[in-house]
Design a protein that fits this description.
The chain has 494 residues and is of the alpha+beta class. The chain is built from 17 helices and 18 strands. Helix 5 crosses helix 7 and helix 13 packs antiparallel against helix 14. The N and C termini lie far apart (89 Å).
Length: 494
């Protein structure tokens, strides 16, 4: 039904409400368009803004900090209200804008080109709801080619608006499905551009005919020219074996009971290139009846690899390659729970390198780094390979021993480790002997949590240092508080 209200402002606010886009998080599609606009003009600032009742809110922006500004001082708001492009070569010299106090107060604001963005039509007439704008701090003349490309980007944004609204109103727009299909054909190229920018494609499975459609970019993600029958018959095989049950179960649940899905999966395309993909699917219904399963397929490999590298960097010591303190905390909590549940023995070793400061002082930090790297290599070398070892910082290391063969005679294991951690730096009379001092603690019912176990090992380390550097001490009792209520059971090794 058409809206009776034909007031442009009312229609504009109704369109924004229907889109549910105000105050939403950044989205890659809009960010990519803003970057493209800025590159085209080689300008300082570009943004996509939406005109709310009293403010201009920025959905995407480059070279611009505010999230929103008042509507009354906005040139873009004027372009939206009057539904016209505004291109000013030099705002400060302009007879109208140059006399405005808010423009005069910003002498770096010189060039502007703003294109109104038409809102989708949820009901009746369409009006502009925002603008694509580029700004520079130097006067300039926009070329026809630049303005044409800016208008093309504006068309892509309008297509994204329409796609967003279509997704939200699919249930209410089934009666207009035929018109939507025709509209999608006319804007196919714009969808292809949007898919290319976001590295995503769409697909559809007709539940009545079994016909399957893959968009061009869906085919590209799969590494095929087109989705012929042979490709479609083996579509599941593109997912790695461990993820095939997940996507199969998700699709079947979507097909049988309408459960939508959103999964990240490991994938190998037809050319053998391993990727990370995001797969979304939901049921398309007509008059309550499921007629198709539709979805989006996105290549998120670059983002996934970046997140993986960041996660790894957050838990790895850069110098030695060993896990760091944060990763130790995670591992130790899990190892203690597992050992206590299964009744398995576990020992924690705190390790300090002796005379490390002297190495740095006499031979430099490069020599000190080599000592740390060599010590780390010993902690992961035979026979300790497979045991968790981490660097806490400085010359402090930790090892969690769970291997039965190493725990059967912990004294012998510690003596072997002490021997392996001995080294020399320098030559002749300038030689320095580097050794290690170790404090060890058995996991027991009294110290079955990380902090208690660490305190026990730390006390053993302190006692070993007091006795003699280059030795080890074992504490088998829990040390639960800042001060010891009883004298712990300590045994010297080495």
């Amino acid at each position: 039904m058409p809206r009776e209200d034909t007031n442009p402002e009312a229609i504009r606010q109704h369109s924004l409400m229907a889109l549910s886009i105000l105050d939403t998080a950044p989205e890659a599609e809009f960010d990519a368009i803003v970057r493209a606009a800025r590159r085209i003009f080689g300008c300082r600032t570009s943004y996509i803004s939406l005109i709310d009742t009293k403010r201009q809110w920025f959905k995407a922006r480059e070279g611009f900090d505010p999230v929103e500004v008042p509507r009354e001082c906005s040139i873009c708001a004027t372009a939206v209200e009057e539904n016209r492009e505004i291109v000013v070569e030099d705002l400060q010299a302009h007879p109208h804008y140059g006399s405005m106090p808010e423009i005069a107060a910003m002498p770096d604001l010189r060039f502007i080109a703003t294109i109104p963005l038409m809102g989708p039509r949820p009901e009746g007439e369409a009006v502009p709801i925002g603008a694509l704008c580029v700004i520079d701090d130097k006067p300039r003349i926009a070329s026809p080619q630049e303005l044409t490309e800016l208008r093309q980007l504006a068309h892509v944004i309008e297509t994204l608006f329409k796609t967003r609204l279509d997704a939200r109103m699919a249930a209410d727009a089934l009666a207009e499905r035929k018109d939507l299909v025709e509209d999608l054909r006319r804007t196919q190229r714009q969808f292809e551009l949007a898919e290319q920018m976001t590295q995503s494609g769409h697909w559809r499975v007709d539940l009545k005919t079994g016909e399957i459609f893959w968009s061009k970019h869906t085919c590209e993600i799969h590494g095929v020219e087109s989705a012929d029958q042979e490709v479609l018959d083996h579509a599941l095989e593109y997912f790695l074996p461990h993820d095939r049950p997940r996507i199969t179960a998700a699709f079947e649940a979507c097909f049988t009971d309408g459960t939508p899905y959103d999964l990240e999966l490991d994938f190998r395309d037809a050319k053998g290139l391993q990727k990370r993909v995001r797969a979304l699917g939901e049921v398309e219904r007509h008059e309550g009846e499921a007629i198709a399963v539709i979805g989006v397929f996105q290549d998120i490999t670059e983002r996934y690899n970046l997140e993986t590298r960041l996660r790894t960097a957050a838990h790895v010591d850069e110098l030695t390659g060993l896990p760091n303190r944060a990763r130790l905390n995670q591992f130790l909590d899990s190892a203690i729970d597992s050992a206590c549940s299964a009744g398995r023995p576990l020992a924690l070793l705190l390790i300090d390198l002796d005379h490390f400061k002297a190495v740095n002082d006499e031979f430099g930090h490069e020599a000190g780094d080599r000592v740390l790297i060599d010590a780390a290599a010993q902690l992961v070398g035979p026979p300790f390979g497979g045991q968790f070892a981490a660097r806490l910082g400085g010359d402090e290391f930790v090892m969690v021993i769970e291997k039965e063969a190493l725990l059967q005679d912990l004294d012998e294991t510690l003596a072997l480790l002490l021997e392996k951690l001995k080294s020399e730096v320098g030559e002749g009379e300038n030689r320095l002997q580097v050794s290690a001092t170790i404090g060890a603690a058995w996991l027991s019912k009294d110290n079955g949590e990380r902090s208690a176990l660490l305190r026990c090992a730390d006390h053993a380390l302190y006692q070993a240092k007091r006795a003699e550097r280059g030795t080890a001490a074992i504490c088998s009792d829990a040390i639960a508080g800042e001060r010891l209520r009883v004298r712990p059971n300590l045994r010297a090794v080495g």
